[in-house]
Amino acid sequence: MRGFCTFISRPLLFLLLHFTLVQCDITDGNAEHLKREHSLMKPYQGVGSSPSSQWDFWGSTLVTSSYVRLTPDERSRQGSIWNTVQLMVELMIQCNFYKIHGSGKKNLHGDGIAIWYTKERLHPGNVSSCQNNIFRSFPYIYAIVNNGSLPYDHGNDGRNSELGGCSSEIRNKDHDTYLAIRYSKGRLTVMIDIDDKNEWKECIDIGGVRLPTGYYFGASAATGDLSDNHDIISMKMYQLMVEHTPDEDSLDWTKIEPSVSLLKSPKDNIDDPTGNFRSTPLTGWKVFLLLLCALLGIVVCGVVGAVVFQKRQERNRRFY
């Protein structure tokens, strides 16, 4: 598929938000207008297979009066839900954080959720996967822009095409969690509110992103040998009232190729001092490897020191 996607999963995560009173302006100072035809809200009217439906679902997806469950807490399940109306404006997505919860232990959970903006919809794939990269703290939120030509590297959890991301402990929370995605004038920003503090934290901020109009929004989730409930509570989409230059207004945005201008390759995106990419905190594996390296260093220094000391002792004996 070509387009933009964000992931929320055991190795990756990404979600949207439902507006609450927060301490920063996620609209970036722009007026906004709710686009009901692109929004998914309780009691989830307009979801189904009828000609008038604005949302289609596939696979294990279950629509209730309280949530849309993409997968149950069972093995080897896949589900998705897709907006049937093509997006023709710049907008911001706001969702009550999808709830990810299950009976598994802290590090034993499902493959996660992905949010999509793609040319085609209702096409199952295999992007979300179990944790493969031990140098990343999971759950993890990250973004990818793809024109259909970039393969997804499962062995490194998509690190070769990741634009930016952050770790986010959102599983089995007792309180509501939120995430906001804003795309305006070529800038993609993702913010999260997951600590029940009513304040936003920046997760991703990438410039030089070009996305066409006329694509579809959707969300999908999957489980493998490990599982979780992946629930959507709400997904509200707002049109941002943004001023454009005459050159921008003259462009046919339906023919734009998804792309992003970067100062460096995405595969080098860890610990970038420029701030274009996010470094991740130390995990148990990282601490273990650092301690192991430190221990090996101490052992090597001890052996070298013992050998040098023995050589000096032998040299001193020759003089007596």
TrEMBL record:
SUPFAM superfamilies: Concanavalin A-like lectins/glucanases. GO terms for biological process: endoplasmic reticulum to Golgi vesicle-mediated transport. The chain crosses the membrane at residues 287-309. The lineage of its organism: Eukaryota, Metazoa, Chordata, Craniata, Vertebrata. It comes from Oncorhynchus mykiss. It is found in: Membrane. One of its GO terms (molecular function) is D-mannose binding. This is Lectin, mannose-binding 2. Residues 32-240 form the L-type lectin-like domain. Pfam families: Lectin_leg-like (PF03388). InterPro entries: ConA-like_dom_sf, Intracellular_Lectin-GPT, Lectin_leg.
